[in-house]
Amino acid sequence: MDFELVRPNFPSSAGRSSEDSTSPGLVRRSESGAGEGIHLRTQSPALSISSGISGTSRITTGVSSDSAAFRSKASSKASTSEASMDAHRQREQKWMSLISTVPAETARKNKKVRKLLGEGVPASVRYLVWSLITNAKSKGVAGVYNQLSKRVRVAAFADMERDVKRCFGEHPLLQSTEGPLLNLLQAYLTMVPDVQYSTGLTLIAGHTLLLAPEEDAFWIFVSMMSSALRPYFSSNSTQMEVDAALFSRALEANDVQVSKKVLVDMGINPAHMCFPWFTTLFVGSLPGEYVNRVWDLFLFEGVPILIRVGLAILYCCRRAILEATSEDAVLYYLKRPQPTWLPPTPDAFMTLAFSFKVKDDDVRKQRIKMEKQVKKQAQSQGIRLVANGSGISLPRDV
Question: How far apart, in whole angstroms, are the C-alpha atoms of residue 157 and residue 121?
């Protein structure tokens, strides 16, 4: 598969601020994969000789104690804050206008939606935007959610209870046995019997519930699973291996040194790197505000975003990986990179992700091609693979 240096799909996204963060400025990358002008914290392992980036110290001199100068600075900050609030309100209004006028079934092909995603998504309308670009309302059927959540408890209910308490201990409303998170998981797993429960489902569903009302969160979750994630949770699907192979090719094309260390010298299976990311949509691996920004773009662009974000995490952990002496250490760094290793804002992180040499359309084409090859091989061996989006069990009276 050929990878080419391409203009990012969202060339303005990283250069503009969202409600979650402040704009970092665009990233430039050299042919060696080293970034120039990337806003990484000085503590980041990516700031090393081998990565081609060096930390810089800033010395401030000539600080004036004049009260007039102080008042001038304070006034300037107030003006900047007011302008930022005005821009935020304008983005809210633009999104509400789009949500009310753009048909959800065509939202992922709409240029205005793409443009606004690049500019940022205010938290106040984020779940509505997610519902729009996933076309979640088209999945919804009145009364179904309540009926599904009241069915006989699934076999994994005890594991779900344990994970809810462990993963969302700081959110008491999600922990109740009758709470929204267990209700959502119960409803989904009774509706889709071929999906095997794993902690990743709790993390994705819980993060959705932190932003959306319960039933809206359910249909957004259903849409996310149907569009890309469901095969990751099936016992007889090889989707993870396919996507991990695409990730390893992207890594080889972008960072020969890290690729050799991880894939050749240590012999780490790419699926072992990707599984904790892709089955959680990076919940638990990245700070919540970063996860929100990743989801904004993943729900629009699909799997190529997962690959780009994985490359960005590897880049941020680069020095630690090159100094690591065991597979366990590398996988630990990648699963939970230190926040100080990341660029300082979600937008800066996504700028980094879009700076890699990955051609998104090529990823999509190669994914389809590899899926067909795997399916053909499985059929020749008498193995039945689960089709994406099959096997839904709805209440009979719906």
Answer: 34
